[in-house]
Amino acid sequence: MPFKFFYTDYATDMHVRSDEAISETLDTVIGHMQRMLKEPDNFIGLIDENNVMLQFMVEDDGSICVDVPMHDRKGSLTKNANLYESIEIVNGLKEAILFEEIEGLVFKPW
């Protein structure tokens, strides 16, 4: 099942905005994650058919912030992870982003 995919890669100055997200398979997304989620501020996002968004952004210390925006609650479910854990999250996705299945997420208001 393809998900909509968006990203910003500051090393190559390439990006796809979330409102212009493109369909990609999870295997392709994982390839992009392995390449892009190494430089601070680079990020990758997925949007499922229910418009649930899952984002991964590299922090200054090299960790990755996993983020599920919740606009209706004016905040996000977040946690810090490494690249391996982030790839495992994407690898575990089926047809939709089920944030309940992502261990360790904590709500943080905006």
Structure report:
With 110 residues, this protein is α+β, with helices and mostly antiparallel strands. It has one domain (3-109). Helix content is 18%, strand content 38%. The protein has two helices and eight strands; from the N terminus they run βββαββββαβ. The chain has helices spanning 26-36, 83-91; strands at residues 3-9, 14-16, 22-24, 43-47, 53-58, 64-70, 75-81, 106-109. Strands 1, 2, 3, 4, 5, 6, 7 and 8 form an eight-stranded antiparallel beta sheet that branches. A hairpin with a 5-residue loop joins strand 4 (43-47) and strand 5 (53-58). Helix 1 (26-36) packs antiparallel against helix 2. It is globular, with a radius of gyration of 13 Å. The N and C termini lie far apart (31 Å).
Could you outline the blueprint of secondary structure elements for this entry?
Blueprint: E1 3-9, E2 14-16, E3 22-24, H1 26-36, E4 43-47, E5 53-58, E6 64-70, E7 75-81, H2 83-91, E8 106-109
Helix pairs in contact: 1-2
